[in-house]
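[recover] target loaded
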């Protein structure tokens, strides 16, 4: 199975939210309990510099970015700042089926998005199973439009 190709359009200086569902071919949500997720944004597919790095699992979100060494958020991240929640509902809360929704909720606050330069970038989103196997869920362009009001 290859990764879904999906281009994301985001606004610099605005909150960012993305919701995806990881499902079986029968449209049933896959239980992501015990999995971890990583999403990175880079200027090009070969770039060393990471513009933003979203991480998370079913309980903890994290986010770093803004350069090779990047700015770092408080340990463990914060729901208010952003990161990734697995088995989430479309608002980032735990889903109605006891947390087995297959939902992947990615978010970033205004300050984080101000630190991502406007332009056409690239991203991918991967999940890691408890046995260490990695699956790339989605990939594509991460387009950030400029903000005028600052």
């Amino acid at each position: 199975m290859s990764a879904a190709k999906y281009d994301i359009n985001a606004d610099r200086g605005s909150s960012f939210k993305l919701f995806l569902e990881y499902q079986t071919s029968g449209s049933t949500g896959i239980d992501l309990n015990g999995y971890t997720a990583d999403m990175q944004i880079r200027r090009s597919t070969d770039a060393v510099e990471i513009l933003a790095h979203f991480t998370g699992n079913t309980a903890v979100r994290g986010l770093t970015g803004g350069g090779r060494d990047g700015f770092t958020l408080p340990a463990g991240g914060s729901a208010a700042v952003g990161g990734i929640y697995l088995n989430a509902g479309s608002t980032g809360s735990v889903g109605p089926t006891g947390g087995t929704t297959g939902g992947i909720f990615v978010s970033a606050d205004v300050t984080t998005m101000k630190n991502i330069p406007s332009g056409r970038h690239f991203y991918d989103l991967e999940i890691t199973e408890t046995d260490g196997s990695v699956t790339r869920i989605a990939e594509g362009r991460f387009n950030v439009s400029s903000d005028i009001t600052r």
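[recover] notes: The first helix runs from residue 110 to 114.
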